[in-house]
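Quarterly update, task 2.4: zinc ion-bound model.
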Amino acid sequence: MLSMANERRRRTADAKRSRLLQLATATLSCCLLASEAVGAPLFENSVVSNDIDFIKADDPAVPACMRYLGRSAQEMPGALDSDELMATDVYQFEAGFMDKSRVGIWVHPTVGSKEDAKVLAGLLLGPLGRLPSVMRHGLSHVVVHSGYHAAFAEHLGHFFVLYADNIQARLNTHDLDETVFHESVHATLDDEWSQSADWLQARQADGQFITEYAAEKPDGEDLAETALFGLTYLRHRERLPPEVAAGVESMIPARLAVLRTIFSEPEPELAGVQSEDCLTP
Ligand SMILES: [Zn+2]
């Protein structure tokens, strides 16, 4: 008798557990469906949380001549070991591009010799030359510090800040072009577009974000995060995995229309152009 009573209790407990499990599963699938319905962001962020080669290192770049302007005192925000803003003896370069855009490259003296500085500045010519024309023309300069830190940009000053060891790390993971693109959006497009009525209305109409980073910081990061996916979709759709291309179409159609306007300016014709065809210093 005792064992039959025990058996009954065990079965009742099992049945309860099984009902709880069913309930939990039902709740989970309801939540998954709900998050799919509003469109969960596709990735954590646009540049380093995926392996998509949005911009390829062998994509044609507008050729640039780099000239050395000497050493001078410059505003170099982002020092890692002090709150120094002005730095003295900064290596100053200027990249003159074939399309008449000019971008300063200011390298902090702690990177080493003038040759070291020149090598670092030279690594940026390709990524700057592959930027959409509207961004390269809007960019004032790039600040390069020694050390390792994430890049950042000053949208009102129209420049961005990179760190030498981070440049190397991003090169190794094929993310340097995408990093320069992301920061250049901040430096050249944020000021005019990120709080514009066109962009804000489009964001509201879309009602979802392409990355978690954009969702977390919509006012600061949505344009820069969305632009990399949007421009790749508009110009090199085949580089996006099909499910990502489908995500761009279904999640951000209104923002895609604004990006089409932002990037409507034709790019310089590069067929037959030689690397010496840069803007002569
Ligand atoms: Zn950003």
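Highlight for this quarter: The two ends are 101 Å apart (CA to CA).
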